[in-house]
């Protein structure tokens, strides 16, 4: 469920990105007030002047630290065993000896590494998850309908959407906002 909420947030940010970076072909012809409205003044500034009254938060340009998550399959290791005496039944574990890989015992681990990124332009990010009412108003569909264990209410976050669905939502919302001159 958290994954779908994060996808929805990212999708809203990606969808509104073109609004934040839109440039006129003739900069002199664009009114200054419109240009100023597209860019926030302070980090965290909130606006809701769009057709859905979605609360958007200004994310200014600058350096951010993101996470790169990698799934790695490793072989499990165990400490080497050395004989205590000449009898092979009496084995003792010596913690000082280098561990030895055990064949056919892979272990899947997750490695998280910080990655620095620099954003050259600011953007508006949805403060909250996209709700089912907002999705229905823009897309006219209900991908969550009929799914098991799904709460269907207007103020519940959208679920059962994938990356492509999220991008389609953002594109359609952006088109609607541009047609309304917002």
Question: What features would you describe in this structure?
Answer:
It is a single chain. The chain is an alpha+beta fold and 182 residues long. Helix content is 29%, strand content 29%. The protein has a three-stranded antiparallel β-sheet. The protein is flat and about 60 Å long. The model has no long low-confidence stretch (mean pLDDT 78).
User: How helix-rich are the residues, as a percent range?
Assistant: 25-40%
- Quaternary state, please? single chain
How far apart the termini lie comes to 31 Å
Q: Strand sequence of the main sheet, in spatial order?
A: 1-2-7
Structural class: alpha+beta
Give the overall pLDDT as a whole number.
Answer: 78
* Biggest sheet features: 3 strands, antiparallel
Order of helices and strands: HHEEEEEEEHH
Compute the number of helices: 4
- What overall geometry do the principal axes of the alpha carbons give? flat
Rg is 26 Å
Please provide the count of β strands.
7
What portion of the residues fall into strands of 2 or more residues?
25-35%
Q: Low-confidence runs (pLDDT<50, min 5 residues)?
A: none
Task: Lay out the secondary structure.
Elements: H1 2-21, H2 32-38, E1 46-47, E2 56-59, E3 62-78, E4 81-83, E5 91-93, E6 100-119, E7 123-126, H3 132-139, H4 163-179
Antiparallel strand pairs: 1-2, 2-7, 3-6, 4-5
In short:
The chain is an alpha+beta fold and 182 residues long.
What attributes characterize this protein structure?
single chain, 182 residues, alpha+beta, three-stranded antiparallel beta sheet, two-stranded antiparallel ribbon, 4 helices, 29% strand, flat
